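User: Just a sanity check before I run the rest of the batch. Below are the structure tokens for the first item. I only need the designed sequence back.
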């Protein structure tokens, strides 16, 4: 079954490229950039990856991000991720990057986006993985800061498909970013937002009604609001769920308690993603496998979830139809 799961063409729609920085790469880039790390070994770093909530993770994530300085670093980070998920059967990625966490340290916006973009182009040639880039605003910063980075991004607008909203959720509701999201829409960007990871269902309502998002990132706390679930089902709003992330960040104590299967059974278009795979114990395929093992998803269910990931992507309908047919072929060859 593992081999069959690997073969299902999947889209990954919720991956922070900075969250794919494996300790090995962290050390090698730090050495190249002559940055002294506060840890001595890879093992010591991995031991730090015990989190009790989102903020305890973000503190370590932003610290590690500090080693990324040059275009070459962003290229290497992104290409390593693609090399890795190619083995998981990923055919399309929509990756987040957090420009503010780099430009605030003096890194050039151009180096960040060009490094990421060139790696994605190379990955398309080498692994046949298509892509879109999503620029994420850091919600713990002000809306003025978001407007400022939006301004800096405009020369690279052709490389950015959508904007998102991430970082510390509690106390930073989507409504804080209404103006910048409205400006982004006017400029032609699509929009997504993290909501209902740790924050209440009200934040999901705000993301839908005030930011007009195409997808909700995480969204697991929608289960607490019956009306919201009805709305999500009726309007076919996809949720980009990250099961192993939710366990590592203690949204749930155990995968068996996760609501993804309940949401799926209700008819919500859930997708399975990795979020920050270098920190959370698994890339996308591992998330699929553990959902199957802990929550009783069948192979057919997981094919349906992959189809949701294609349908929820920003690909053209022609591209979607081609990939949906490929999933049908994998599914029927397994079920024969
Ligand atoms: N899981 C997550 N939630 C919010 N912001 C993030 N940035 C990176 N990972 C994140
Ligand atoms: Zn995320």
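Assistant: Here's the designed sequence for the first item:
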């Amino acid at each position: 079954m593992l081999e069959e799961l690997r073969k299902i063409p999947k889209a990954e729609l919720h991956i922070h490229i900075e969250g794919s920085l494996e300790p090995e790469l962290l050390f090698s880039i730090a050495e190249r950039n002559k940055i002294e790390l506060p840890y001595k070994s890879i093992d010591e770093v991995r031991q730090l990856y015990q989190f009790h909530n989102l903020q305890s993770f973000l503190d370590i994530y932003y610290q590690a991000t500090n080693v990324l300085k040059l275009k070459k670093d962003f290229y290497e980070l992104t290409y390593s991720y693609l090399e890795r998920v190619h083995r998981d059967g990923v055919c399309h990625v929509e990756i987040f990057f957090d420009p503010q966490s780099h430009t605030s340290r003096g890194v050039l916006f151009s180096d960040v986006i060009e490094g990421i973009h060139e790696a994605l182009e190379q990955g398309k040639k080498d692994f046949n993985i298509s892509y879109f880039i999503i620029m994420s605003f850091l919600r713990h910063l002000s809306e003025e800061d978001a407007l400022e980075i939006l301004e800096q991004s405009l020369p690279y607008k052709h490389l950015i498909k959508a904007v998102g909203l991430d970082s510390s959720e509690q106390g930073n509701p989507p409504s804080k970013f209404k103006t910048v999201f409205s400006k982004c829409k006017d400029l032609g960007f699509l929009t997504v937002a993290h909501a209902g990871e740790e924050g209440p269902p009200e934040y999901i309502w705000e993301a839908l009604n005030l930011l007009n998002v195409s997808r909700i990132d995480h969204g697991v706390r929608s289960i607490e609001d019956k009306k919201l679930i009805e709305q999500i089902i009726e309007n076919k709003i996809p949720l980009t769920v990250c099961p192993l992330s939710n366990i590592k960040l203690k949204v749930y104590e155990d995968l068996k308690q996760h609501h993804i299967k309940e949401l799926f059974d209700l008819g919500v278009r859930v997708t399975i993603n990795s979020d920050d795979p270098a920190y959370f114990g698994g890339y996308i395929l591992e998330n699929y496998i553990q959902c199957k093992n802990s929550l009783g998803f069948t192979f057919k269910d997981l094919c349906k979830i992959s189809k949701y990931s294609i349908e929820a992507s920003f690909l053209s309908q022609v591209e979607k139809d081609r990939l949906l047919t490929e999933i049908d072929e994998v599914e029927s060859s397994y079920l024969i």
